């Protein structure tokens, strides 16, 4: 069955079963491989994308549930890796293998959208659904604080 | 395929074309590879340039492209290798680019990169001489080429920061790169000693970080080829079980299904890189393949292994504890007799269960078999392995097989899938269906079919002398490894115990290596990760029984061993270790050798009366002799703390009816952000001629430091993991 998805500002006609998880439409049908497969049961968060600005684990969300909504993937977070979260990630040298970090960054960006200056425990709560096997959690936490700072600085400059 | 779908596919092709690279440097293109997987931005367009040796080219703009023959799984290989070459070549770091080297060339031209494996925390510590040599050799050829052109003695030519100069003459390296390639040196130069370094030893940001924050880094699992199809596979949940029957007709009519293929373990190929009996469903998308596989009726013959369990292994261990084992190491005289006759003894039984690698990138491989060539994408830690596996599986000439190195989403000693059958599966399926095939193991398959870290049961007994210090120690380890495999059995069964630094005059170390059906493999810091927990808690048990402070006991017992003393003194200094904190809080220390590095940890914990544990802080002190990049080293050590603490606190696979009952992250728990302690990394480097590894040694001392801290907080000694399964309440 054909349906249309709006991803990173562009429309894509997709011919697939609407109950297919959004993750597999993104990766295999559209070719946006920045969003990763990790567990298939919404336990690890490497597949996190935004749907209408909310963090969603795309391995457990059907494509049908995203029709008519704005989907943002890591490729669409910024055109040039300039989102404050991405800049902070580079500044703090966060990724190691890097596989989980598309999901980590999308979860962090969503957190900062709803909380401009999160505390450590807010960060822990918001990020607890995103596993990192390399153990980069401390740098993730520092980078989220730094991204908040970058966003505040940008806000003051405007 | 509908028009809409075709439209999407074509758009995709255009977008992903941009990723091509790496291999282009070496003059070949991959037919049909629309998304080659190397050299993403800022190296999207590989630089041409003159090849001075296999390791590097220099283009006309002076950009140096360094070909890295190792995989990048987060340990920083791209950056480390580039730093080692750039140090000797003497070029501005900003002019350096890194790409993955061509493995076909390596295998078929006499292994010109010497070692391509990344196991054993060995890249820098073991391989720095020949990697630096490549840079030094290129630099000397550039000098010789300039000397020849300028008609001056080579000793008059300096090569510094990408510029050759002699008197008034100056030229960039780029101008002499082609000439340098044909220079033959009478003698290869010596490599620099650490005192001469200008780049090594400085904190250098990893080259691969920028491409890992915007989704552009391509991993093996991201491979996309024209005409590619997908396979989901299931092997017998009891390893080595046989496929009895399956009903392909039940799923054949489902949308997108291309083939249902039985996979057969080949006798004689049942070693570490085997392919087990299983069934593969090939379809036009992976989700369709996986969904159909879940609905496929399959019957297995699990054989006698279907009766085995973790509980049964514990019974076996209890029985073998009462029998003499094979002696692996012995020193002094009659350790067992001294213990048997001693007035004061300390005895304890310890246990660590099976653990799995669970890299975040599930095990996968893509293979394209054609009459003229075979292309392979495999997340193996040594990229020459999949080349050899595919050559063997298909009976093809290794010269026709091209392995394309991509980023790997974690490895941790599991071979990243190279030591599993997945690459054979992909090769076999591509041959059978005549199209490129990407095989992805579901997370459940990834955990059930991984080569696991073997479980260990250990009994220890020590005799204490009049001064409270141990006079004799006996250990008896019971290991369960696949077919009693020597490699992951005895070699690591006593590691950290028989290799302890403590000066106990009479020692006897025994082991029982029991054959089990579960395939086993190395697992980040093999041996030390299990046994560090054992030995370093038992060290505290001996110290406290003898009325000694744990830190003072270790300093006394390692007297004269400079690398250990350096670490222990630093731990005391940075942590403020003490044993008199109020009930409910505690500090613990541990120190373990792994891959030639001495690594110490001090953990601070709090435990509520009801037994809620918080690991507040871990100080890590490492003596690896030298460090070439303290930033990357700190990252590796922080990560290692998480790695081994994760297993010790929450991990453990349970075997029941021959199969693991934990098969995904809901039942195999890993540490999450809210559970991660603060970690401070400190260096205490001997810098006196020996090198230790960095990627693994941070793990082993962490759990025993935490368990020792729990003892001081609660009075409870935790001798098995996961710690979370123990009642830590106190009153």
Number of strands of chain B: 27
Q: In which order are the strands of the major sheet of chain A placed?
A: 2-1-5-3-4
Structural class of chain B: alpha+beta
Question: What's the multimeric state?
Answer: heterodimer
CA radius of gyration of chain A: 15 Å
Percentage of residues in strands of chain B: 15-25%
- What pair of chains forms the biggest interface? A-B, 66 and 74 residues
Portion in strands of chain A: 5-15%
Please tell me how large the radius of gyration of chain B is: 28 Å
Helix and strand string of chain A, N-terminal first?
EEHEEEHHHH
- Proportion in helices of chain A: 25-40%
What is the number of strand segments of chain A?
A: 5
Given helix and strand content, the structural type of chain A is alpha+beta
Outline of chain A = globular
Question: What are the main properties of this structure?
Answer:
heterodimer; A: 158 residues; alpha+beta; 5-stranded mixed sheet; 5 helices; 5 strands; globular; B: 731 residues; 7-stranded mixed sheet; 17 helices; 27 strands; disordered N terminus
Give structural notes.
- The complex is a heterodimer of chains A (158) and B (731).
- By secondary structure, chain A is an alpha+beta fold.
- Chain A has five helices and five strands, in the order E-E-H-E-E-E-H-H-H-H.
- Chain A has helices at residues 22-30, 84-91, 101-114, 120-127, 137-157; strands spanning 2-7, 10-15, 48-51, 54-57, 70-72.
- In chain A, strands 2-1-5-3-4 form a five-stranded mixed beta sheet, sandwiched between helices.
- In chain A, helix 2 (84-91) packs across helix 5 and helix 3 (101-114) packs across helix 5.
- The longest helix of chain A is centred in the C-terminal third of the chain and has 21 residues, at 137-157.
- The termini of chain A are far apart.
- Chain B has 731 residues and is of the alpha+beta class.
- Chain B has 17 helices and 27 strands.
- In chain B, the strands form seven sheets. Chain B has a seven-stranded mixed beta sheet. In chain B, strands 13-21-20-19-14 form a five-stranded mixed beta sheet, sandwiched between helices.
- In chain B, strand 15 (364-369) and strand 16 form a beta hairpin.
- The chains are: A alpha+beta (158), B alpha+beta (731).
- Chains A and B meet through strand 2, helix 1, helix 2, helix 3 and helix 4 of A and helix 1 and helix 16 of B.
């Amino acid at each position: 069955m054909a349906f249309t998805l709006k991803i990173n500002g562009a429309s894509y006609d997709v011919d697939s079963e609407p109950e297919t998880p959004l993750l597999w439409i993104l990766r295999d049908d559209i070719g946006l491989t920045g969003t990763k497969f990790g567990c298939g049961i919404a336990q690890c968060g490497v597949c996190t994308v935004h749907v209408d600005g909310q963090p969603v684990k795309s391995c457990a969300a059907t494509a049908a549930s995203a029709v008519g909504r704005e989907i943002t993937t890591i490729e669409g977070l910024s055109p040039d890796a300039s989102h404050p979260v991405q800049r902070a990630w580079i500044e703090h040298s966060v990724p190691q293998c890097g596989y989980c970090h598309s999901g980590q960054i999308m979860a962090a960006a969503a957190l900062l959208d709803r909380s401009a200056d999160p505390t450590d425990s807010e960060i822990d709560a918001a990020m607890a659904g995103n596993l990192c096997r390399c153990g980069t959690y401390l740098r993730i936490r520092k980078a989220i604080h730094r991204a908040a700072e970058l966003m505040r600085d940008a806000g003051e400059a405007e | 395929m509908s028009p809409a779908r075709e439209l999407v596919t074509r758009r995709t092709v255009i977008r992903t074309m941009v990723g091509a690279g790496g291999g282009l440097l070496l003059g070949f293109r991959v037919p049909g590879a629309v998304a080659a997987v190397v050299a993403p931005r800022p190296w999207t367009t590989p630089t041409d340039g003159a090849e001075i040796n296999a390791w590097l080219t220099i283009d006309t703009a002076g950009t140096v492209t360094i070909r890295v023959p190792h995989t990048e799984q987060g340990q920083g290989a791209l950056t480390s290798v580039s730093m080692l070459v750039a140090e000797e070549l003497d070029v501005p770091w900003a002019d350096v680019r890194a790409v993955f080297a061509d493995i076909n060339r390596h295998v078929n031209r006499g292994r010109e990169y010497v070692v391509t494996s990344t196991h054993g925390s060995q890249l820098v510590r073991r391989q720095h001489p020949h990697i630096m040599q490549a840079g030094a050799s290129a630099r000397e050829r550039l000098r010789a080429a300039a000397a020849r052109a300028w008609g001056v003695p080579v000793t008059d030519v300096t090569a510094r920061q990408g510029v050759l100069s002699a008197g008034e003459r100056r030229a960039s390296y780029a101008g002499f790169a082609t000439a340098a390639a044909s220079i033959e040196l009478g003698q290869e130069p010596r490599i620099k000693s650490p005192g001469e370094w200008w780049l090594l030893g400085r904190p250098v940001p990893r080259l691969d970080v920028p491409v890992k924050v915007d989704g552009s880094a391509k991993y093996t699992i991201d491979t996309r080829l024209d005409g590619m199809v997908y396979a989901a596979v299931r092997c017998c949940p009891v390893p080595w079980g046989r496929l009895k029957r399956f009903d392909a007709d039940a799923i054949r009519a489902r949308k997108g299904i291309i083939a249902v293929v039985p996979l057969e373990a080949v006798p004689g190929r049942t070693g570490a890189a085997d392919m087990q009996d299983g069934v593969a469903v090939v379809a036009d998308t992976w989700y369709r393949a996986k969904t159909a596989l879940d609905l496929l009726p399959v019957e297995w013959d699990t054989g006698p292994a279907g009766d085995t369990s973790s509980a049964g292994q514990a019974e076996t261990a209890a029985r073998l504890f009462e029998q003499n084992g094979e002696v692996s190491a012995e020193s002094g005289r009659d350790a067992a007799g001294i213990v048997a006759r001693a007035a004061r003894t300390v005895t304890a039984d310890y246990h660590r269960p099976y653990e799995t690698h669970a890299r975040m990138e599930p095990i996968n491989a893509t293979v394209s078999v054609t009459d003229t060539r075979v292309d392979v994408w495999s997340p193996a830690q040594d990229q020459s392995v999949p080349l050899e596996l595919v050559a063997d599986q298909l009976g093809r000439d290794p010269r026709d097989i091209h392995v394309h190195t991509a980023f790997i989403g974690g490895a941790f000693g599991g071979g990243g899938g190279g030591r599993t059958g997945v690459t054979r599966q992909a090769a076999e399926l591509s041959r059978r269906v005549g199209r490129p095939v990407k095989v992805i193991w579901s997370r459940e398959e990834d955990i059930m079919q991984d080569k696991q870290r073997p479980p260990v049961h250990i009994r220890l007994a020590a005799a204490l002398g009049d001064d409270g210090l141990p006079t004799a120690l006996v250990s008896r380890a019971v290991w369960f490894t696949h077919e009693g495999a020597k490699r992951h059995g005895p070699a690591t069964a006593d590691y950290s115990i028989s290799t302890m630094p403590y000066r106990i005059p009479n020692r006897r170390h025994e082991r029982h290596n029991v054959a089990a059906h579960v395939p086993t493999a190395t697992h980040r810091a093999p041996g030390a990760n299990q046994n560090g927990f054992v030995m370093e808690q038992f060290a505290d048990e001996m110290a406290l029984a003898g009325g000694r402070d744990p830190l003072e006991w270790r300093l006394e017992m390692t007297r004269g061993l400079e690398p250990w003393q350096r670490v222990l003194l630093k731990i005391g200094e940075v942590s403020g270790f003490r044993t008199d904190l109020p009930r409910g809080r505690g500090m613990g220390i541990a120190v373990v050798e792994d891959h030639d590095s001495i690594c110490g940890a001090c953990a601070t914990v709090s435990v509520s009366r009801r037994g809620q544990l918080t690991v507040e802080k871990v100080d890590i002190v490492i003596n690896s002799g030298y460090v070439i990049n303290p930033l990357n080293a700190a990252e590796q050590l922080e990560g290692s703390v998480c790695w081994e603490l994760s297993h010790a606190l929450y991990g453990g696979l349970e075997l029941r009816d021959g199969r693991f009952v934990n098969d995904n992250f809901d039942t195999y728990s890993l540490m999450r952000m809210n559970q991660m302690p603060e970690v401070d990394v400190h260096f205490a480097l001997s810098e006196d001629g020996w090198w230790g590894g960095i990627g693994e040694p941070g793990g082993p001392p962490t759990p025993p430091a935490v368990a020792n801290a729990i003892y001081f907080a609660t009075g409870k000694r935790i001798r098995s993991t996961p710690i979370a399964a123990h009642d830590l309440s106190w009153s």
